[in-house]
């Protein structure tokens, strides 16, 4: 599918008594398209998530991003309303979401988008940060997914809080879709979960294909966007510490840009085979 114009639509998707506010972008294509459910970061329904949804549609896919805080903010609002309660309010509200509600919201969204007249019935999912972990979780709740794209997120775990990470093999056994991981070299909090996940998925005979991008940091898909300005170079009279920080910032910027571009190319190559 080639790049083209898009059409943006807002939708309220019914999930029992809940309504999930969703942002849908349609590609301008001549054939029915595969759909991608986009799961937002811990920051909720952000401008960046909507930008990513636009980019997927430009690539030829129906992209839908649900606000999983729909109805959970003040006065029954979503991310925008939750944000009025303080800088940490959105993250706190997202962490408090019940897993079963998340799964049922995402299933309602996937059902909805799969049945659109412009859709071919195939649904993939991709998510970032908290949304990456939620993507892995959703794959355990919807075996019919065609693919799950996990950006710097971990597999479901069954360890008690504060205890060493252990993979929830019972959950992973329910996965039907291939899972593709996108990880940053400088992100050990998440990277440490990858080897046990590889072992568990191999034992369960499930497809899990993780790639780690050299020099990149957590959140490289956002940090590596081409429109992000490069960090300033060190001033001529900068001391050693300032010069070192400037050099590190420049190196991270370049690594995140490369990771973003390489990950996007990989994602689109896999999507083209679905």
Explained architecture:
With 274 residues, the protein is an alpha/beta fold. The chain has one domain: Rossmann fold (3-Layer(aba) Sandwich). The chain is 39% helix and 24% strand. It is built from 10 helices and 8 strands. It has helices at 47-58, 79-83, 89-95, 99-114, 130-141, 169-172, 188-191, 194-203, 220-223, 240-271; strands spanning 6-15, 18-27, 33-39, 62-66, 119-128, 147-151, 179-186, 208-217. An 8-stranded mixed β-sheet has the order 1-2-4-3-5-6-7-8, sandwiched between helices. Helix 6 links the parallel strand 6 (147-151) and strand 7. Helix 4 (99-114) crosses helix 5. The longest helix is centred in the C-terminal third of the chain and has 32 residues, at 240-271. It is globular.
Stretches with pLDDT under 50, minimum 5 residues:
none
Order of helices and strands: EEEHEHHHEHEHEHHEHH
- The shape, in one word, is globular
**Helicity, as a percent range:** 25-40%
Under CATH, the homologous superfamily reads Alpha/Beta hydrolase fold, catalytic domain
- Number of distinct helices: 10
The CATH class designation is Alpha Beta
Mean pLDDT: 95
Q: What's the total count of β strands? A: 8
First-to-last CA distance: 12 Å
Rg, alpha carbons: 19 Å
How does the major sheet shape up?
8 strands, mixed
Output the strand order for the largest sheet. 1-2-4-3-5-6-7-8
| Second rung of CATH, namely the architecture | 3-Layer(aba) Sandwich
SS strand fraction: 15-25%
Using the coordinates shown, work out and report the CATH topology. Rossmann fold
Query: Which class best fits the helix and strand makeup?
Result: alpha/beta
Q: Count up the domains.
A: 1
